[in-house]
């Protein structure tokens, strides 16, 4: 019995050992099958291009009217009519608003009456002057007669041909005639003064009438320029005056339209050195809010008077043709200008370049479809492209999609990606 039990135990141990060996062999076979060569990953690559490319600079700009005329009331009164359509194009001299003219018409009529009264006073002063001159002439004639009598009676009195009383009367008459001349002369001078005063009154009345007519003319508000008229800030029936805080409306000249943009002090100095005052400035492009480019190129107009100390930028101004008045003040856009041309520049898309602590590199694929990591030095950014100064050659292939799946020395299946267009070309 004991021998039979030992034999069964031995058979059980042999069975367990064979099972373990079979399991291990099966597992090893599966591991060998799983260690087969992996499939090469697919990646998208672009070819490094070499071409002469323009280097652009872009700045955010604000559009404004070339001339912005605020239409304000110059007199106090109630707004009667609005004679234009808001947002429409108006001509210089076109009527925009009318203010109630009746109070100012009455003031003008009153000033006209005062002028007529002043003219009457001046005519009266002239008549008084002529009368005073006639009296002076009569007094001078009387004095000459009295002087003649005195001169005639003096020798006769010595010869006793006339009485002493006759001579005394002649002398007294002469003295009286001379006094009358002085009185008449003073009356002439007084008449002259009255003429001057009346003339001054006439001039004052003329000025008052002119001022009244000017104020009456201010009851009609005209456009001083050709341009786009804005919204009416004051409604019909409201009282307007020169002290009103808001203008009645505004008119802007928008063709050409002005675009102002801030240029950093460093860029301003660099561009000033690059372009002499006698050199023609490059044309400006305007990129609108929807991403489209304005079809008409602009020109640089002028730079501001000073650098803004808080921002370190100087305000520059460009002018753009605006036929049809499509562009309006208050819009935003990007001003773009080609400041130089890089000859034979090497270009790669931004997504192909990796950056770590200021060092740049790309994953390149050689002719054997093997990946290698190449350090590069980059220059300017041209849109979504980098300019590569060194580290690559024309015709090299760099990975733009699938970089995370590869490493140095790996074989890949490259597929050509769409080339990124160069801005401005």
Termini separation comes to 101 Å
Weakly predicted, low-confidence segments? 1-36
| Helix run count | 4
Largest sheet: 13 strands, mixed
Form type: rod-shaped
Order of helix and strand elements from N to C terminus? HEEEEEEHHEEEEEHEEEEEEEEEE
- What is the SS-derived class? alpha+beta
Folded structure, characterized:
Helix content is 36%, strand content 32%. By secondary structure, it is of the alpha+beta class. The longest helix is centred in the N-terminal third of the chain and has 57 residues, at 102-158. Strands 1, 2, 11, 12, 13, 14, 15, 16, 17, 18, 19, 20 and 21 form a 13-stranded mixed beta sheet that branches. Strands 3-10-8-5 form a four-stranded antiparallel beta sheet, with no helix packed on it. It starts with a helix and ends in a 9-residue tail after the last strand. The protein has helices spanning 2-34, 102-158, 164-217, 265-274; strands at residues 42-47, 49-64, 67-71, 77-82, 89-90, 95-99, 220-222, 227-229, 239-240, 249-253, 257-264, 285-287, 299-308, 313-320, 332-349, 353-356, 359-365, 371-382, 385-390, 397-401, 413-416. Helix 2 runs antiparallel to helix 3.
């Amino acid at each position: 019995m004991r021998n039979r039990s030992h034999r069964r135990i031995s058979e059980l141990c042999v069975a367990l050992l064979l099972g373990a060996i079979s399991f291990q062999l099966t597992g090893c076979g599966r591991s060998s099958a799983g260690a087969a060569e992996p499939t090469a990953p697919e990646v998208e690559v672009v070819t490094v291009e070499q071409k002469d490319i323009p280097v652009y600079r872009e700045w955010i700009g604000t559009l404004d009217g070339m001339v912005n005329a605020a239409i304000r009331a110059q007199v106090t009164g109630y707004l009667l009519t609005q004679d234009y359509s808001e947002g429409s194009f108006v001509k210089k001299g076109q009527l925009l608003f009318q203010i109630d003219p009746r109070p100012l018409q009455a003031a003008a009529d009153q000033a006209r009456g005062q002028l007529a009264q002043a003219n009457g006073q001046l005519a009266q002063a002239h008549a008084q002057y002529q009368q005073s001159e006639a009296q002076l002439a009569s007094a001078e004639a009387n004095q000459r007669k009295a002087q003649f009598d005195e001169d005639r009676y003096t020798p006769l009195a010595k010869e006793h041909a006339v009485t002493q009383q006759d001579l005394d009367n002649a002398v007294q008459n002469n003295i009286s005639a001379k006094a009358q001349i002085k009185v008449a002369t003073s009356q002439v001078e007084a008449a002259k003064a009255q003429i001057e005063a009346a003339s001054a009154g006439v001039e004052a009345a003329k000025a008052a009438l002119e001022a009244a007519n000017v104020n009456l003319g201010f009851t009609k508000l005209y456009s001083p320029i050709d341009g786009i008229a804005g919204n009416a800030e004051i409604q019909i029936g409201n009282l307007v005056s020169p002290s009103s805080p808001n203008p009645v409306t505004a008119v802007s000249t928008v063709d050409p339209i002005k675009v102002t943009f801030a240029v950093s002090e460093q860029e301003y100095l660099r561009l000033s050195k690059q372009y002499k005052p006698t050199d023609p400035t490059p044309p400006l492009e305007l990129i609108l809010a929807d991403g489209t480019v304005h079809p008409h190129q602009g020109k640089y107009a002028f730079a501001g008077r000073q650098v803004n100390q808080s921002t370190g930028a100087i305000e520059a101004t460009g002018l753009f043709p605006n036929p049809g008045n499509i562009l309006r003040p208050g819009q935003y856009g990007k001003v773009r200008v080609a400041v130089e041309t890089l000859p034979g520049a090497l270009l790669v898309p931004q997504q192909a370049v990796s950056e770590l602590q200021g060092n740049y590199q790309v994953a390149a694929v050689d002719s054997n479809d093997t990946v290698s990591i190449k350090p590069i030095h980059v220059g300017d950014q041209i849109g979504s492209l980098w300019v590569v100064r060194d580290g690559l050659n024309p015709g090299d292939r760099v990975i733009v999609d699938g970089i995370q799946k590869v490493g140095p020395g790996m074989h890949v299946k490259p597929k050509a990606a769409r080339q990124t267009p160069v801005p401005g070309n």
